[in-house]
Amino acid sequence: MDHIEGWPLYKILIISDYRNISHTRAEAEVFVRLAQKGHTVHVLTYKDADYIERFRSAGIEVIEGHPNKKISFSFIRLLRKLVKENQYDFVHTFNSKGLTNAIWALIGIKTKLITYRGYAGQTHWYDPVMYTKYFHPRVDNIICVSKNIEDILAQNMIGGRRKLTTISKGHDPQWYENIIPIERATLHVPDDAILVCFLANNRPFKGLKYLIEATHFLSKELPIHFLFVGSGYDSPEIVRSMEASPFHDRFHKAGYQKNSLPFLAACDGLISASTHGEGLSKSNVEAMSLGIAPIITDIGGNEGLLTNGESGWIIPIKDPHAIASALTEMATDKTERERRGRNAKEHIRTHFNIDQSVALFLEMYGNLLKKG
Q1: 198-244, pLDDT tens digit by residue?
Q2: From CA 11, how far away is CA 34, in angstroms rounded?
Q3: Cα–Cα dist 154/85, whole Å
């Protein structure tokens, strides 16, 4: 660790997958800003990562070499060599493969190992697999993307909150200033429709079935169309339930999109019907950053994301009637929809700003080094 004008400068190594800019921007830009502040940042990632040029333009050294399996002896040797040569203060891992390899590589080395948890499920104290990853004694700190995840981990791991830090992924309002919405005609959506987005790779906890069920309680007079962005919408069960909906002719599937922002920007609303498991949903934050007030469920991961009635709608989980009611208000009251959208954008700017995330990273680093 170096110093400049009394402030510590850290040496940091990141192990993460940066092959998709839109999925990793909030994470990557924290380290870009740390490098701009004078900290030494190196990144271990895939050789075809989209973010390589952005990193290098910020003075970050990129090393092409991300592990492809949970235990890679060649990667362990590489990582151990890099840590000894560069004397990093911190090694960050942002996925399971990076973490399991780093645990072995850093045994006997004083460098602090920091990992990340963005999903609320599958963190039980009785699961032996957790002790090979997050609950391993070599892990010095876990960054939790939401307070809900910190609470769940604290209940399940030895030491409680001693190794936990909540840092939400902050966003920069400038990222959303020049997004060009996709033309609705390409989606076969009328220009005067109220277009509501369901943005997720569909899995059971995303609550899609409750949204589809809610369409049975909507008036057909409402000019609502639905845009589904992501994978997992072509299973026979999903297709049958969509075809049975009275709004089946207003369902539009865009499929998986590497950059979903132009599709989201073309919408008037977003519905997130998750029943559990979410940390801090990126799609909700992106919608709000675009001035779109979302409908979200009252799961723990959404706590603090918005103010009900002011910057969006908060509804109970697994409640099609509540979904239908919120959609009806969103679709029929343009003034209220736009007011909440403006408030949503301001809420993200003031509560989920990337500069706040950077400050919390620096605070965490200082606290970890004080612990010795």
Answers
A1: 999 999 999 999 999 999 999 999 999 999 999 999 999 999 999 99
A2: 10
A3: 35
Backbone angles phi, psi at 169, to 5 degrees: -75, 115
> Tens of pLDDT along 1-34?
665 555 789 999 999 999 988 889 999 999 999 9
Q: Rounded to an integer, what distance in angstroms lies between the CA atom of residue 27 and that of residue 333?
A: 36
Token pair in block for residue 60: 């970050």
Torsion (CA) 200, 206, 212, 213 in degrees, nearest 10: -170
Q: In the beta sheet, which residues pair with residue 199?
A: 229
The residue whose two tokens read 């498991």 is: 277
Sheet holding 112-117, edge to edge: 61-64, 40-45, 11-15, 90-93, 112-117, 141-144, 164-166
What kind and span of H or E run contains 340?
A: helix 334-351
What domains does the chain contain, in order, with CATH numbers?
A: 2-170+353-371 (3.40.50.2000), 174-351 (3.40.50.2000)
